[in-house]
Every structure is written in C-alpha cells, then in structure tokens.
Amino acid sequence: xxxxxxxxxxxxxxxxxxxxxxxxxxxxxxxxTRRELGSLDWHWxxxxxxxxxxxxxxxxxxxPLAHALWNSALIATISAPLSTLLASMAGYALARxxxxxxxxxxxxxxxxMMVPGAATFIPxxxxxxxxxxxxxxxxxxxxxxxxxxxxxxxxxxxxxxPRELEDAGRVDGLGFLGLYAxxxxxxxxxxxxxxxxxxxxxxxxxxxxxxxxxxDPDYWxxxxxxxxxxxxxxxxxxxxxxxxxxxILPLVALFLIAQRWIVRGVLLTGIKG
Amino acid sequence: MTTTAAxxxxxxxxxxxxxxxxxxxxxxxxxxxxxxxxxxxxxLLFKYVAIGWGxxxxxxxxxxxISLGSWNGLENYRRLLGDPAFTRSLVTILVFTVxxxxxxxxxxxxxxxxxxxxxxxxxxxxxxxxxxxxVSYVVGALVWKMSLFSGTxxxxxxxxxxxxxxxxxxxxxxxxxPPLYWIVLVTVRLWLQTxxxxxxxxxxxxxxxxxxxxxxxxxxxxxxxQLFRHITWPMLRNTSVAVTLLLIINAFQAFDEFYxxxxxxxxxxxxxxxxxxxIYLFQTALGEQNYGAGSAGAFVVTALIVVFTLLxxxxxxxxxxxxxxxx
Lengths: 273, 327
Description:
The complex is a heterodimer of chains A (about 270) and B (about 325). Chain A has helices at about 5-30, 35-40, 50-60, 65-95, 100-110, 120-130, 135-140, 150-160, 165-170, 175-185, 190-205, 210-215, 220-230, 235-255, 260-270. By secondary structure, chain A is mainly α. Chain A has a single domain (about 65-270), classed as MetI-like fold, CATH 1.10.3720. The longest helix of chain A has about 30 residues, at about 65-95. Chain A is globular, with a radius of gyration of 23 Å. In chain A, about 45% of the residues are buried. Chain B is mainly alpha-helical and about 325 residues long. Chains A and B meet through helix 1, helix 4, helix 5, helix 6 and helix 10 of A and helix 1, helix 3, helix 4, helix 5 and helix 7 of B.
C-alpha cells in the first residue's frame, strides 16, 4: 500500500522546521550575551558562546531557580509513582476482589471524571487552604495523587489478568494482598511505566495549582519561577531562556529515551478520555 | 476483631463464588478496604467535599473567608453573570475554542497522514512533531512572547516580516486592532498540543486493515483523496470524536499561556481583555479573596464544559446513525 512519496518528504521537512524552530531559539538565546540578544539585528548563532545567562539565572536571589527545580523534581518524583500505585491498588481491588461494595465504590470513583479538573481548582483550594496546605509541600503534592481515570485503566488491565496465575498463587497460600503485591503489581510494569511517565510530565509542567498553592518563593516550582522571571519589569533575556532550557531538558530527555512508553500512555489515556 | 467487625451486608448476591460465612469473607473485605481506601478517601476529600463545599460557598457572601454562614442566595451568580468582564471572558474562550479546535484537529490529522506515508525517517518526524508535548505552556509562552513574536525588530516574526518588505516592527502581543495577539495565542497552543493528537490519529490510521484500501482500489477509488475520503476518514470516526472532545475540554480550561503572554492585559484596563474564565476566577478567588463568587464561577464554567461535551457527543452520535443509514 505504501509507495515512495518524494512529495511527502518535502512536506514533512516543511512542517518540521516550525516545530523545531522554538527549540533552536531556546538554545541560541540562552547562549547569547544580553547585548547581542538585545540588538536589533537578527543573528543565526551567538558570535561568541556565553554561559552568563545560566550564571545569571541561577544567581538571581529574587527568583531561586535552583530551589524551584528541586521542588519540581521532588513533586514529580513523589507524585508519579505514588499516584500510579494508588490507582493500581484500587484498580486491582475493583477488578479482582469479589465483594458487594465493588460496584458502588467503582461508581463513586469514576463519577469524579465527570468534573473537569481545572475548573474545580477553587473548591479544592478552599479545602486545602482550610487544612493549612497553602505554602506546604503536601499541599502541592497530595491533591494531585488521585486519578480516577488511572483507576479505570488499571481495572481494565487487571480484568484481563490471567486467572491461572492467580490460582497458582492461591495454591501457594497467598491472600488477596499477597496476590496483588507478588503477582499483579509486578506483572503490570508496562502500564505502570506508561502512566507513571505521563504523570511525571504532567506534574513537572503543572502551573495553575502550584501558582495557587505555592505562593511563597520557597514553594515555587520551576514553572512558577519562570513565569515570575517572564513577567518582571526588566527581563534578563539570556537568563530567562537559560532557565527555560534547563526546565525542559529533563522532559525532552525523557521523551527521547522513553518515547515508546509515552506513546503507549498517550494512546491509553487519549482514546478513552 | 475478626468476629466483631463483620461487614454490614450479609449476602453479596453476585455471581462470585461467595462462601456464605463471614469468617471466610472477611479477608476479602479487609483487602478490598486496604487497597481502595487511599483512593476513595482522597477523592472524597479533594473532589466530593471540595465540590460540595464550593457549591455551598457559592450561595454565601464569602469574601476573605472560606466559612459558611452569610447566605445570600443566588446573589453571587447574579453578580457574576452581570459582570461584563466575566461574560467577556466566556466570549473570549468561545472564540478561542472555535479557532483552536478545528485548526489543531486538521493539523494533527494532516501530520498523522503525512508521517504514515513516510518509510524511512518516520521515527524522526514523529518525534519532531511530538516532542513539543514535553514542553510546558509556561516555556512555550516564554519563547513565543520573548523571541518568536517579540515586538523588537530581531524577533523571528518581525525579521520575517522585514524580509517580506515590512519596515516597521510589529508588536504582536500588544496589537489589539487587528487582533494580532490571537495569532500568538493560537500558534503557541498549536505547537504545544498538536503532536499529542497526531499520535492518536497515527495509531488510528495504523489500525485500519490494508485490505480495505485494496478493496477500495478494486472498487475504483484511485486518488489519495478518494482513499482518504472513503476509507481513512470513516475508519477514524472514534478517534476523531475522542480528539474533538479532548480538544474542547482542554481549550475551555485555557489558563497558562493567556496568563503568561497577556500579563499586562490581565487587569482588563489596557488594550484587549485577555482574561479567560479561569483567569477571571483566579483573580476573583486569589486576588480579591472572594471565594463565594469564585466558586459560583467554577460551577458556571464546569456546567458549560459539560454542556459542550454533551452537545458534541450528540452531534457525533447523530453523525454515526446518518452514516450507517446511508450505507
């Protein structure tokens, strides 16, 4: 069915240029001096590569970039595995443990998918605020740990889990918790990795919730720090782009290394979403 | 413990092989509760309690407080819908949705068809179109505002315009008439999200059996367009519905790029009022500390999203019956 289409390659290249252009700009601008980047002429590449932008970005005391990166890393590395684990636990129980409460609990969980997340940030802020969660690490992390949609995906996965494997485990004397921890969980690595990576990306890139909860500079995430830099009166442009470049590097690396898992996760979450 | 804390329901009555006696049911209950409790408790607190509390707050005069007690009926809703800034934000997001949804849809589908036709280098181009999905909206907004569409002569758009003969540099973000800032807002989201939807379309295309295309050729479909029109497009129906739904839901909740690109216009004073509903709510709740009005707005926006998704589902549903009857 597929033939060689020289036209397709030409078209693909034409489209690829604008898609790659912003990455090029990030790198070029981060490596320029303030004077060169602020000049009125177009420069394809810095006359002399300067790392002053990086030094300025990390040396700015008003916007603690290194600390913000640390916060983001902490939030994402805690949230991604934990939220995936919680979803997998609930998904297993709903799929495999025959108790009468299974159906009502299932509906209790998936009913929350009806409400779009971002529109409810004020009600959630009210609850978290009343519990003293403003300017705390748990306030940034905990509300984002509960994904009904991931429960749905894990439940579907465990429903298709081979019964023979479980029966063998039962013969060995495992209870439901043992079956989950020893058999089901270790055998759901692919789904776990896919959803975990997507969750990591989501938490690293989140902006609205960290903006609402992390009001003190000590609790800024990297996105909030970059936004603060962007909206200052006198912007140090190379430092701005250097900070942005550092902020996207972990995820770009993740995309290049783990693209297979990410694509799988996107297909799972996109089609059913 | 095992004997006293018996669960409240005596018979499951389900198809499961359920031993009638409590003692043997207890381990199942215990495991079920242990495994589901964190999720159920989390959703209960951060969704159910939050939404319930928010709903009650929306009927209260809750300024500078999040406690109930000062009931004012529908006053928050009345004031909100009477505030031109809020209704304008709804118009803004509607216009934005009307622009961004079809444009992203078409570009994502086009790129998926294109990538699927490549043989060598397919992985490279797929990665190229997909990788902007790794970038946050904040960084996207930053590049668009400060480099790609910056108002200085060395901005990319202005350098291109100069090549095309425009001597004066254009202030893309600041120009309201004609509304050039829309170009900035639409293209940044386009860049950030198209790859994600391209992946969905690409997977849909690759699931179409090759025999269908061969059969269509036998039936006289020869041009690429005919094959697309009669095979690819109808076979992608489910994907198209899912993509449209996701695009609408995401567009309605736009916040990040508006907040970061239009910062100077967010006061609603100068130039265009670039506030989306979420930015309006953010300012109401976090800026003015008016949690009653903020909650009321949250429910208005949620209701709009639900109505829109249901409408889209209806249209998609009708589309299917018409198509099936037509065959």
